[in-house]
Amino acid sequence: MGHDGENTTEIAGVLACSCKTSPLWLIACGLARMHRHIYPSINPATTGIHHPSTPSDPGKAVTQNLSSCNEARRNVFEALHPRASLSHLRHDVQTRGSSTAGALCFPKTTLDNHAIGASEGLEDATNTPPAVPADEKKSIAESAAGAHASGADAGAAAAEGGAPKVKTAKELEKERKKAEKQAKFEAKKAKAAQSAPKPAKEKKPKEKKVEEEPLPEYVEDTPEGEKKRIRSFEDPHFKAYNPIAVESAWYSWWEKEGFFKPEFKSDGKVKDEGSFVIVHPPPNVTGALHMGHALGDSLQDLMVRWNRMQGKTTLWLPGCDHAGISTQSVVENMLWRKEGKTRHDLGRANFVDTVWKWKDEYHKRINKALTSLGGSFDWSREAFTMDANLSAAVTETWVKLHEEGTIYRANRLVNWCTKLNTALSNLEVVNKELTGRTLLDVPGYEKKVEFGVIVHFKYPIEGSDELVEVATTRIETMLGDTGIAVHPKDERYKHLVGKTAIHPFIEGRKLPIIADEYVDMEFGTGAVKLTPAHDPNDFTLGQKHKLEFINILTDNGLMNENAGPYKGQKRFDVRYSIQDDLKAKGLYVDKKDNAMKVPLCEKSKDIIEPIMKPQWWVRMKELAEPALEAVRDGRIKIRPETAEKSYYRWLEDINDWCISRQLWWGHQCPVYFADIEGGAGDIPEEKLWFAGRTEQEAEEKAKAALPGKTFTLRRDEDVLDTWFSSGLWPFSTLGWPNKTHDLETLYPTSVLETGWDILFFWIARMIMLGLKMTGEIPFKEVYCHSLVRDSEGRKMSKSLGNVVDPLDVISGIQLESLHEKLLQGNLHPSEVTKATKYQKTAFPDGIPQCGADALRFTMINATTGGGDINLDVKIIHGYRKFCNKIFQATKYVLGSLPQDFVPAKTGVARGKTLAERWILHKMNTAAKDINLALEDREFSKSTLIIYRYWYNELCDVYIENSKAIIRDGTEEERNSAIQTLYTSLEAALTMIHPFMPFLTEEMWQRIPRRPEDETKSIMVAKYPTYTKELDDPESERAYELVLGCVKAARSLMAEYALKDEVEVIIQTYNDTALTTVKEQVSSIKSLSGKGIKGVEILSSDATRPAGCVAYPVSTEAAVFLHVKGRVDIDAEIAKAQKKVDKAKSNIQKQEKILNDAAYIEKVSDAVRETDQKRLADAKQELHSFEETIKQFEQLKLE
């Protein structure tokens, strides 16, 4: 936890989920201040305490879940009030349910507290927490109670809302003696501090260690492609976790060994375990990868590696997308910025060559990022959407669809970018919302242009003095008006229906006034101007009423000959001049603010114009129905459910798809126009287009269709929408249209994982085209991950400077270098300034080196299937500390194994001690749970499971306990403990490998192999699974009691600042608990810390020890510590009384719940049993605290 302000925020957040009337929760705010001193080993991953600036989880979704609030409430209660039993708070999580059963936080300072030093082994994890000075504890207690006066009386007065009561002489004398005693204690402490060696001086060497010179640059001495030469832990680069050193050399060896390639049986079929195939969503060659790619790639490689370790025939097929308009746009910007040239200056052939060079450069950068992340791709199958074989698949698809009429040519409205001179898909258009009048920058205009207003003007009626008032947000389009529509029931205009209006600027243009129920009588004037060639709604009415379609714009955004006197003028210059001319004619009415959306080209930022253009279209309804049915009948599963609903909504209301683009970079349409000598006569234009896989094929078709005609074929210069070729990706990459071995054995693929934002534009089209062209679904499952935003929740944008390059996170980067990267891009100087400012704020010290494993784990952890992900690089760096935990734990275990150690042939031995049986059961449970979580795509939950096993169970408990067994046990126990230590570590490494491939390979290669195990790499080792022989719930229950006693002892020692010579007394309340605790005295003493002098066990009928404080572990046991003469008894009585009051309140509430008639009827037996146990625990608490008060009162009399 962080500073006081942060703690207060954390507690406040949890209080929102808790009972606000609870006195203990009021105290929590004060106790939070000393939390870091008292409980430094409390891990946010196990408490669910969420830092406001470090989004947690497996995180974020858990905190969005009601059950997580209950879990967080329970854990904070436990962390801040260690003496209170918490079983009464567990009901919410158990009964309401949570996909994660807890909350995994992104580690912060707690990971530092747990980190194992290179020479200190694991002892830090169990050191007694430092004490809080008495005066600070007193101040905190007073603050928590809301009192500024001293003593219990002042606190009581504050609680009553009045002034402190007048004290009696006896009370004043009591306070005087107490003050004298405190003064003597402080004097004694000060004298001891002066004579004793000062801890501060002893800690100075550690401070110097932090300030040591940075390591020299790591130089790998392993030849490329060879197995990595393992270096000693004495090497400076391997004394602690160093991601650069750990991640070096492994990837090239994996690839050379062929681990990434799919393995088939001898007959060429997939292995009996099945297959798992993912075609990698091809990143655009527009530039470097971003964190969204890192998220998707981390999830995909997790699934791929997990399935590979299950023995399946596994393929992850990589590739890149040519990204037509996006790539052409960035290259054009680059040309203009560097050379001051346009693509027209170069010509089509030279410009395309320039784009190919760009593609080659960024293709290398992309692949470097993918390999740095550890992606286990089969690079021998790498694809590019404009490779010859994939281009052939595009041509085959286009020709077949054109032959059957699914692809057709039509003159319709399209999204037209006048800057890029091309039609755009809806995906390439961004709608900017305006609330009213706004001035926007528009490419090609020196001054900003006005938007967000609606202009009212009038048309004169032919043969009459009447005028009809209309309104428009695009006044310049009135030059293309060809009609006016009114509602047939509108009494204001009934007499005008059938008449015509006169255009004031276009000579001879008459506008028929039509009636249509489409018109909203209540909106505006009730009369609507119609511009069928420049508005989607008007287009429909124009077709219905057979109005004239008049285009008034050139491709460059100038007015054409149809604009009359405005020909040659820029469209937005005309916007102003028309208003002036309307005023001059007396036809202008007014202009008002108007909320609206302005469509912008995503690439050029130009204002999109709806323009009539002859384009190539795909009939979508006939393709959509089979795609809908494939999801409805379960052949394709779409996760999460929200994405499936969006899929249905889009496909059920689908429109035809414009697939042609007026670009130079992309797949040129395989269609030819026949220019007939002497003219085409009455042959429709659409009948003169002929598709062909080759020009010769097209010519044969033309000859057959045009007998006796002389013609010349001219290939269409348009290229295809990028999504057309991308829609073929799952099967074209496997060899289609050829019948290849890959297509026959690996298609359909298994999973398509990508962002939800392209569900319609890409995923739906792959399903439609896959079913159409192959007759099969392209994949069996779709998983849509969330979008990655910055830590403030903003969309990542280059202009904001918040785009984070995964390579910068992996390797680290200085702030100055981040600034330099901005200058290398295509940003406007004003955007560079804004982005630089953000970088200074977000990354004042640059981005620290985090490594690929920490990055991957963070991204997987954040994937909850919920909303967008707000990412802070500090979180990633926190998980680097978790990597260090793994590194140091493995290092310690290796140092604990005898030189002649040989692992057992299998890892199913049950262990000789309770601690062994417990960790093996936990290992087995983790294996079962993590496999289920990954099967269900509960990625965030899977990180919780493996984190908890590594951190809380293996490192913090078993490794620590094994020290005592190895030191004090019999030879048989020692040997068993060492074997269990090996088994639990081996399983931990293999379980976390798909999440952290580099670190686990590095450490796995260092541990000895079991006899007859010739596995070369951890990535092809068998993934741990549930083993019935290791399932041992009884040992788990027994050892949890032991751990509860340990926790109680440590908490009491911390709360009362008892550092040494501590006598721990454990009283059990049944024979089973008594036996268990007696047998585990050594473990309890070892885990409780160095300050424990001895452990005494009492049976239930034994007299409660005098002069002790109590910690109720459960209904089975309580822990007591002797505090006579070591604590302020009056203060402790007051604290215990508050807990008595709280316990009584809990009992009353629980009894009320259990006695409620509706409760008895509705809840299950399991819930009732849980609540009854909660009541029993509360009663046990009450009894323990009342006894504690009695003991303290007795101490006062002694």
Automatic annotation (TrEMBL):
It catalyses: tRNA(Val) + L-valine + ATP = L-valyl-tRNA(Val) + AMP + diphosphate. Residues 1126-1195 form a coiled coil. Gene3D superfamilies: HUPs (3.40.50.620), Isoleucyl-tRNA Synthetase, Domain 1 (1.10.730.10), Valyl-tRNA synthetase, C-terminal domain (1.10.287.380), Valyl/Leucyl/Isoleucyl-tRNA synthetase, editing domain (3.90.740.10). GO terms for biological process: valyl-tRNA aminoacylation. It is found in: Cytoplasm; Mitochondrion. Its EC number is 6.1.1.9. Residues 916-1061 form the Methionyl/Valyl/Leucyl/Isoleucyl-tRNA synthetase anticodon-binding domain. HAMAP family: Val_tRNA_synth_type1. This is Valine--tRNA ligase, mitochondrial.
